Amino acid sequence: MKLLPAIFSILFAVLVMSGCQTYDPYTGEKQVSKATTIGAISAVVCGAIGSRKSSKRARNAAVGCGLIGMGVGAYMDAQEKKLRNELEGTGVRVAREGENIRLIMPSNITFGVNRAEVQSSFYSTLNSVAKVLGEFNESVLVVSGHTDSSGSESYNFDLSIKRATSVANYLKQREISSERLKVRGFGESSPIATNSTEQGRADNRRVELLIEPKAQN
Questions:
Q1: How much is the pTM?
Q2: 80 found inside a domain
Q3: Strand intervals (E) in the chain
Q4: Do both 140 and 179 map to the same domain?
Q5: DSSP per residue over 26-69, as a string?
Q6: Residue 79 located in a structural domain
């Protein structure tokens, strides 16, 4: 019976690793992310430690240790995959940044011109986001608003705050805990494109949702 925790951890590691494969863009071969591999090793080690302990508390702690080790990389991998599936074709960009996930929502699909209320046509997309965030609730969320450089700096800052707040409030209505949400406004200070062209300004007008694992906080 002492070997059961170790066996459980090994099986769990294999299952998660098999579900978190990606494709090498150069060779086309399947590969497992480094975060998942390292996490799986952690899970096996922790499970083995638990198998050598006699108390139930020690065994539970060891299993928890394994889940933490495996969870960060594999958990975010799974969340990213689900978000990409749910948001395909919506106009929302999903970007992976280390262990974090960033959703980039252009204002042309999110808000009306100079408006801070979420457009009703975008509700279904935010519902999909909330659905995934509800399933993967071991993460914290930073909603940030951004504008182009048109108009005054103070106006742009206020508008960016209002738009980020609108998105956060909608997610709260979809049962995403306020404790997980932070709102920030950047106005025109963080462009991702040039403000000298119409397309660049359109790219800069956006709301972003940064999804971070709780382990980082």
A1: 0.69
A2: no
A3: 21-23, 30-32, 93-97, 100-106, 139-146, 181-185, 206-213
A4: yes
A5: TT--EEE-HHHHHHHHHHHHHHHHHHT--SHHHHHHHHHHHHHH
A6: no
Please name which of 149, 150, 171 lies closest in space to residue 105, comparing C-alpha atoms: 171
How does pLDDT run across 158-184, given as a tens digit for each residue?
999 999 999 999 999 999 999 999 999
The residues that bridge with 144 in the sheet, in sequence order, are 184, 208
Cβ distance 87 to 128 under 8 Å? yes
Q: How far apart are CA 124 and CA 92, in angstroms?
A: 12
Same domain, 56 and 144: no
For 80-86, which contacts have Cβ atoms below 8 Å and span 24 or more sequence positions? 82/132, 82/135, 82/136, 83/129, 83/132, 86/128, 86/129, 86/131, 86/132
> Directed axis angle between helix 153-173 and helix 123-135, to 10°?
60
Q: What range does the domain containing 27 cover?
A: 4-72
DSSP β-ladder status, 93-97 and 181-185: unpaired
Task: Check whether 35 has a pLDDT greater than 60.
Answer: no
Residues contacting residue 212 through CB under 8 Å, at least 6 positions apart: 99, 100, 139, 140, 141, 142
Cα gap 117→75, rounded to integer Å: 32
* CB crowding 137-163: b at 16 or more within 10 Å, else e: eebbbbbbbbbbbeeeeeebbbbbbbb
